Each structure stands twice: as C-alpha cells, then as structure tokens.
C-alpha cells in the first residue's frame, strides 16, 4: 500500500500532514481488505444464494428433485420466474 506524499515534501511531515497520510493509508488498506474478502467469500455467497432460491421455489422437503432444479437454475432455465425472498 502506498500513498502520494510529494504534496507534503515542501513543508515536511508534521501535524495535519501526517494525519492525512495515515488516513490515506488506512482508507487504502480498508479498500484492499474489502476487495480480498469479497473475492474470497464470493463462491460461498453464491452457494448460499442458490440454496435460498431453491428453498423458496421447491421447499426444503424436495431433496430428490433438488439437483434437477439446481441444474436448471445454473443453466438459466429459471430466469423468467419471479419469487419473493425475505432478506434478514
């Protein structure tokens, strides 16, 4: 993580200048961590979303046909259907 410090070199680093550099570094670090966590959790989130969609469409007791519905969902065959899902 780097920060542009050239705008502070004329007067040196002190006081608010240092605070500004630290704030820039922290903001960049937060963005980097959010990006990495998003990439790491994307497959797990997709799996959970598929499970929620299937539960809303076929219920939880239809285990034998769940695989067929999952294949249809992944192939885009269910894209024209509308369902209501409660998001906590």
Describe the structure.
Helix content is 64%, strand content 0%. The protein is built from 2 helices and no strands. The protein has helices spanning 16-58, 63-75. The model has no long low-confidence stretch (mean pLDDT 79).
Concise synopsis of the structure shown:
With 88 residues, this protein is mainly α. It is built from two helices and no strands.
List the keywords:
mainly alpha; 88 residues
- Percentage of residues assigned to helices: 55-70%
Query: Ranges with pLDDT <50 over ≥5 residues?
Result: none
Largest sheet: none
Label the structural class: mainly alpha
Secondary structure: elements and pairs:
Elements: H1 16-58, H2 63-75
